[in-house]
Amino acid sequence: MTSLLLPVPLTTNAMNPLSDLAENPFPKPLLIAGPCSAESEEQVLAAARGVAAAGCAVFRAGLWKPRTHPGGFEGVGEAALPWLRRAKAETGLPTATEVATGIHVAAALDGGVDFLWIGARTTANTFAVQEIADAIAASGRNDVAVLVKNPVSPDVELWLGALQRLERAGVRRLAAVHRGFPSAGATAYRNEPQWQIPMELKRRCPTLPVLVDPSHIGGRREAVPTLAQQAMDMGFDGLMIEVHPAPDQALSDAAQQITPAALRTLLTHLTVRVGTGCDHELAVLRQLIDQCDHEVLAALARRMEVVRRIGQLKRESNMAIVQNQRFSQVIASRLEMARELGLDTQFVNDLMQLIHQEAVAQQL
Ligand code: PEP
Ligand code: MN
After folding, report:
1. Separation CA 191–CA 272 (nearest Å)
2. How does pLDDT run across 66-89, given as a tens digit for each residue?
């Protein structure tokens, strides 16, 4: 456990905070797993045994749950602290829980919790993060490890700002957790990965460990293994995975939690990218290509939706579908954009013709 908790100076340059992190104090990959919420002593112990048997380094369980609507399961709170202590005594794993207020911090630290994490909704609230940072400083326990999840908006400055508040409060064992960003339209994810945001954080803070939470990104348990592998392929530093002994009965995030057995299978098949050669670079680039294609197809789907609305307007106004003058303007302006963007104009011309063909078909 101590190897997870070595203190390191995070900042040496006040103008460029967190850019000069010392050695990453955590093992790579840092594997954290456990239930979304602590529900009962029995459930906590069963999950902790499974997480330890799978070879993870830290056991997580949420005690205070941020819920969108009131009246749902909001966690059992401090009542779970003895369960976490028992889980730690039995398995030897350090424990982690989410804190959102100074009261949570004091209770978790008094209760023997080793890692605190700040949830996405809290990271977005600078007052709440400051309150947490102040509570850690006041407790004299700035040896505690703190994980900062990305804020709900894709804003790398806000994420970095939260890390800086903790750093200024004297916290030295810091890591970030990428859990994706809510998206407006229908997507394959609960929270869009937008990998460029955590990559930018890593670029700015090269030795800050950045973990990935495939459970909250995917939102479905089937998506978790692929996302976990993608995180390793892109060189992220660890994983936070939601694990529950009976996921379908979970009181929160039932759809995305996996069983301890599924966690073992996932970790057995996980390839950790330790090479520095071409294979790794190729995997990183292919991941970016996948993300680009995802964006291109999502934009095409939005375009076709607009096309159908135009089709309806034309029908109501008794207009012909193909308006050649408008199409000529579209082609001319897209070729101009192509030149500005350094794209081959023939390719863009062919592509626009194809898109136009499909748009006409959609309006028929
Ligand atoms: C969680 O980890 O259970 C959680 C609530 O996370 P997030 O803040 O990423 O939604
Ligand atoms: Mn959860």
Report:
1. 24
2. 888 888 899 999 999 999 999 999
Q: Whose CA is nearest to atom 4 of ligand 1?
A: 119
Position 158 in a domain: yes
**Shortest-distance ligand to the CA of residue 121:** 1
252 Cα: distance to centroid of ligand 2 (angstroms): 6
Q: Ligand 1, atom 5: nearest CA belongs to which residue?
A: 119
pLDDT tens-digit map of 267-281: 999 999 887 677 778
Asked whether the CA dihedral 108, 109, 114, 118 is positive or negative, the reply is positive
SS3 content of the chain, % helix, strand, coil (to 5): 50, 10, 35
Say yes or no: CB of residue 104 within 6 Å of ligand 1.
no
- How far, in Å, CA of 113 to CA of 353, rounded? 60
What global pTM score does this model have? 0.75
Q: Is the CB of 36 under 6 A from ligand 1?
A: yes
Burial of 130 by CB count in 10 Å (0-12 exposed, 13-18 middle, 19+ buried)? middle
Per cent of the chain over pLDDT 70 is 93
Same domain, residue pair 148 and 193: yes
pLDDT confidence band for 24 (50 / 70 / 90):
low
Whether residues 134 and 214 fall in one domain? yes
Q: Are residues 294 and 355 in the same domain?
A: yes
Contact 148, 125 (CB under 8 A): no
pLDDT at 69 (0 to 100): 86
Instruction: Identify the domain containing residue 335 by its residue range.
Output: 279-363
| Residues 293 and 352 reside in one and the same domain | yes
From ligand 1's centre to the CA of 119, what distance in Å?
A: 5
Q: Which residues have beta carbons under 5 A from ligand 2 (an ion)?
A: 36, 253
Beta-carbon neighbour count of residue 17 at 10 Å? 19
> Is residue 23 one of the residues assigned to a domain?
no
Can you give the CATH number for the domain in which 64 is found? 3.20.20.70
CATH number, residue 332: 1.20.59.10
CA of 209 to the centre of ligand 2 (A): 21
pLDDT digits (tens, 9 = 90+) for 83-137: 999 999 999 999 999 999 999 999 999 999 999 999 999 999 999 999 999 999 9
Distance 243 CA to ligand 1 centre (A): 13
